[in-house]
Amino acid sequence: MTGEFTAPLQGGTALEATGLAKRYRGTWALRDCSLSIPAGRVVALVGPNGAGKSTFLRLAVGLIEATQGSVRVFGEPVGQRAAALARVAFLAQDKPLYDGFTVAEMLRFGRRLNPGWDDALARQRLAELDIPLRRKVGRLSGGQQAQVALTVAVAKRPDLLVMDEPLANLDPVARHDIMRSLMTAVAETRMTVVLSSHVVSDLNDTCDWLVVLNRGQVQVSGEIDELLSTHHLLSGPVGLADGMAARTPVISDSRTERHAALLARTGTGAPLLDPRWEARGVGLEELVLAYLRRPDAAVLPRPTLTRS
Amino acid sequence: MVVINLRLDPGSGVATYLQLVHQVKQALRLGVLMPGDQLPTIKEVVADLAINPNTVAKAYRELEREGLVAGRPGLGTFVQRSLGGGVTADHTAHRRDLARWVRGCREAGLDHEDMQALFTSVLTDSLREDIA
């Protein structure tokens, strides 16, 4: 156990939801949501509009109360102790910035509100990004504003950073820059990150844990590398497709008169196949789309629970 | 001094941590990286490629597991030994064999992609036999 790259500092579970549900008036925004996310992960929360992503994130940081079930952050029920709250930072979709403030005033504001504030870290990040401290926030570009909001959240030195659509309304370069700064911050602080996004391609290589929410329920929760290595796109003669579907969970199924292409959860290792089948690996985007199109394929790939 | 820059091929379909492992091994095979050389720090790779630090850590752990590199706390990750099956003289001979094979294919009317497909498929088959 030496070197910079041996195991993440934290072990254990960062976030654990048990039977979590939220009802707004007559409608369930989230139903029976149970999942467990190990500490030190960068979690992508994806799902269509109205799937319950924002609701889940707001429950996780204690901004709203659950109708049923519970959520724990680092083992503690959310929203009961101020000290526990200080371990969590939340970046809402409408960036929590004041247009009339200068960047320096934003930092002063952050320092006032947060006991663990790391001013040196904030200033160093902004200097690296060439963001002038004297400029009014309202006069920064969208990408720079997002960077300032992220800096304020990171300088709080949270153990868990929760972000609701941090990449929305940003151009591709700004999205890439934000993900780069986020990754650098993760490398420096080893914090756990949960972020929701619509753009799955931005999450490739940046997130290592995937949670798919669909119609208010958890459809997938697992390590991305493991999910990718346990799903394959199988193509072969259509006559064999039913037999394959009977043996293997099929997420997406597209058939022509002669040919079938099945995105299937084949499990680890190379799938044992009739030579008439051809198997290839799948990408994250392909996998997410396949699940989103089949909300009934409520397959919860193992492991859904933390392995310590 | 850091000797190599790691790069990614997003279209390759190969898991990112494996791409990093392969690149370091390739550099070791070609003698670009030598024992004592330092790999870029995780933070440097992350800032460079905008990827998850856990991915870089996973790649470096894999290289460490194979005894190719070692992490020194607070200093970084250093190459322990070079890589390359056989001796360099053998490489030359294999290269000559391969060149002969390519000439043969060409004469038989195979183009660049045909040959690549053939080579990859033979390589994959032989890897499968190793696993099986």
From TrEMBL, chain A:
ABC transporter domain segment(s): 15-240
Lineage: Bacteria, Bacillati, Actinomycetota, Actinomycetes, Streptosporangiales
SMART domains per the UniProt record, alphabetical: AAA
Alphabetical list of PROSITE patterns matching this protein: ABC_TRANSPORTER_2
Keyword Nucleotidyltransferase annotated: no
The name this protein goes by in its record: ABC-2 type transport system ATP-binding protein
Gene Ontology MF terms in the entry: ATP binding; ATP hydrolysis activity
Record's keyword terms, sorted: ATP-binding, Nucleotide-binding, Transport
Automatic annotation (TrEMBL), chain B:
Domain of life according to the entry: Bacteria
Domain (HTH gntR-type): residue spans on this chain: 14-82
GO molecular function: DNA binding; DNA-binding transcription factor activity
Matches recorded under PROSITE patterns: HTH_GNTR
Keyword Transport: no
Listed SUPFAM superfamilies: Winged helix' DNA-binding domain
Pfam name, any one: GntR
Assigned keywords, A-Z: DNA-binding, Transcription, Transcription regulation
Identification of the protein by name: GntR family transcriptional regulator
Species annotation: Nonomuraea dietziae
